[in-house]
DNA sequence: TTGAAAGCGCTAACAC
DNA sequence: GTGTTAGCGCTTTCAA
């Protein structure tokens, strides 16, 4: 391993001078700077990150923690993070939080003790609370994305799920629907609760009652959505809802499939709205293009790195909070209801 | 920050003893061990990774390098890696290699100098060659997956693309096809070349000529596949191929879509075989279930961590090489050709 | 079995 | 502008 000492000897200067050159200090004569740079190149020197981290108390990296890194849902977010990282002086590493509690704790300890300078935690699992409280208690810089955490003054980036859901349901109402069902994802994720709240807000504001069997809990297994939509369709047309608002696009896709497989039409017999705007031709989704609420995940990913970099550099006040608006992408799964 | 010194003082022992307890050395009296453990718990101590890495010359982590971490294609691989990591004493970090050459080099330097102990490089881009040569030249432990690298004795895990492709094409031949087209992905990826070779091998072995316009280059833009399949279908039925073997499932999916959109049937008018077995109901692919060559990505991911861990621990001889077989998953996109 | 001391590679404070 | 020195937190000789 080549060290500063080797370079120093080769360039006939002190280690301190080599360090100065590496770190771009101004008080080095041009001639010496040239010589040191040449030696670095000749010897193929690169500073050891562990040693540097130790003395600087900075690891030079930001860790992005995701549940299920393998989910295709993260595409835009990751792309944004990558592009954000390109503009940051810090490197970004991605970490997948496993299910095993002990491994998780160990992993967090690993990251927060000399491996990374800050953590981005994406997702709104209630089960993340102990992690968040730990990070807060040890005063480790972190930023939450999509986790509306009220009990502590933390840095967070949110999207307005309630507004997004409300807008989607109001769009259905404006299109003429009044019996609108909701397929709700796992309530252990805050976003699903918020979207549910947006749905109820819109319904209540418009004086529309919510029938008990119009709320379906889909939890983790998306196939429940398939069955749930078929259950609805088997009711007489004048009794069943004319539209479904879903917590996310996967649920919407399965619901649509269930309806189509019974020989009904989307949107003629049933309108469907999703959330996330995640399924499209590019990822080989070939079903009907789903009208869906889009969150600006790319921007969120990109901005999160920049904000966190600024926080670390002290150019950004904390706690920092920012909310992003959603956008309703109108595609082909919504039409006026048949009149009954 | 709590350090060994703090713990030492609290437990009224020396720092060396604390270190011994942390690292499970045997020569510590039970009483002292108990006291130290208690102090560690009381103070909430966790060893600093930078300091530890510096002295041990081990970072305690394995870096997984992926191009386009955001690709849904990596799902099974990442899942396997996660599960492999759970059995390893080392942590796994995921890294996305950007497009910018300078950033890339910097990132590699960052990883190889005190940030990680070994690298897993997935993918068969020819452009990875400089990275591989660099890692080799600095004697940094690494493992290639799906990159058949011949010029240096490196650790690698491969799948038998040629065999897989040959088997797929022979299945088509056995089903009665003789005019079989090939939609070939980006030739800058070795896997696509290998699959092409498997195709030609099968054709030649069975005495089937390959018509010039039956080879379509799809490169990066999958939509080219859509157009290419439509071009084929516009030829008279007795002249056009009766089956297409595609470099991957995305290409296959677009080809199928092109055929269907012209009002033709898959597999009645055209049989299609893909590679990767990647598109299914779970990731919201709703087209015809594609007959496809499946690679054991989960196993590869899991095994790669274990092999690399063993290599680092010196319990696995190097260079290490292993090849995995593929499996043809027969679904609904292949049927005997109509007789002409 | 335990402690004192040296040193991993680097940077920063201080001297010149 | 440059070198000397100390020290980041940890592990590991070496002595006791």
Task: Compute the number of strand runs of chain A.
Answer: 12
Contiguous runs where pLDDT drops below 50 for at least 5 residues of chain A: none
Number of helices of chain A: 12
Structural class of chain A: alpha/beta
- CA-atom Rg of chain A in angstroms: 26 Å
Helical content of chain A, roughly?
A: 40-55%
What would the average pLDDT of chain A be, to the nearest integer? 93
Give helix and strand order of chain A, one letter per element, not per position: HHHHEHEHEHEEHEHEHEHEEHEE
- Describe the largest sheet of chain A: 6 strands, parallel
Give the CA-based shape of chain A.
elongated
Please tell me about this protein's structure:
The structure is a homodimer of 340-residue chains. The mean pLDDT of chain A is 93. In chain A, the strands form two sheets. Chain A has a six-stranded parallel β-sheet with strand order 2-1-3-4-5-11, with helices on both faces. The radius of gyration of chain A is 26 Å and the shape is elongated. Chain A is α/β, with parallel strands linked by helices. In chain A, helix 9 links the parallel strand 6 and strand 7. The first copy, chain A, is built from twelve helices and twelve strands. At the A-B interface, helix 4, helix 5, strand 2, helix 6 and helix 11 of A face helix 4, helix 5, strand 2, helix 6 and helix 11 of B. The first copy, chain A, binds a DNA duplex (16 and 16 nucleotides) through helix 2 and helix 4.
């Amino acid at each position: 391993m080549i060290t500063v000492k080797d370079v120093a000897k080769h360039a006939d200067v002190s280690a301190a001078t080599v360090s100065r050159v590496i770190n771009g200090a101004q008080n080095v004569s041009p001639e010496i700077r040239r010589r040191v740079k040449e030696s670095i190149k000749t010897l193929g020197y690169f500073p050891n990150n562990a040693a540097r981290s130790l003395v600087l108390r900075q690891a030079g990296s930001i860790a992005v923690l995701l549940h299920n890194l393998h989910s295709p849902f993260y595409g835009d977010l990751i792309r944004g993070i990558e592009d954000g990282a390109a503009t940051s002086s810090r490197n970004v590493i991605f970490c997948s939080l496993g299910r095993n509690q002990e491994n998780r704790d160990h992993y967090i300890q690993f990251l927060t003790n000399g491996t990374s300078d800050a953590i981005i935690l994406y997702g709104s699992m209630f089960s993340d609370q102990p992690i968040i409280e730990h990070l807060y208690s040890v005063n480790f810089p972190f930023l939450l994305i999509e986790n509306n955490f009220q009990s502590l003054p933390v840095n967070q980036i949110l999207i307005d799920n309630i507004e997004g859901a409300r807008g989607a349901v109001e769009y259905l109402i404006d299109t003429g629907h009044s019996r609108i069902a909701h397929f709700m994802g796992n309530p252990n994720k805050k976003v699903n609760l918020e979207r549910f709240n947006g749905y109820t807000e819109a319904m209540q504001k418009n004086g529309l009652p919510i029938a008990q069997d119009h709320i379906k809990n889909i939890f983790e297994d998306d196939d429940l959505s398939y069955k749930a939509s078929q259950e609805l369709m088997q009711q007489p047309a004048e009794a069943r809802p004319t539209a479904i608002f879903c917590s996310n696009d996967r649920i919407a896709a399965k619901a649509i499939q269930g309806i189509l497989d019974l020989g009904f039409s989307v949107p003629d017999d049933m309108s469907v709205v999703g959330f996330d705007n995640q399924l499209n031709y590019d990822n080989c989704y070939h079903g009907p293009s789903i009208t869906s609420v889009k969150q600006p995940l790319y921007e969120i990913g990109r901005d999160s790195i920049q904000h966190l970099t600024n926080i670390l550099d002290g150019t950004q006040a904390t706690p920092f909070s920012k909310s992003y608006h959603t956008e309703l992408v109108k595609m082909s799964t919504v039409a006026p209801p048949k009149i009954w």
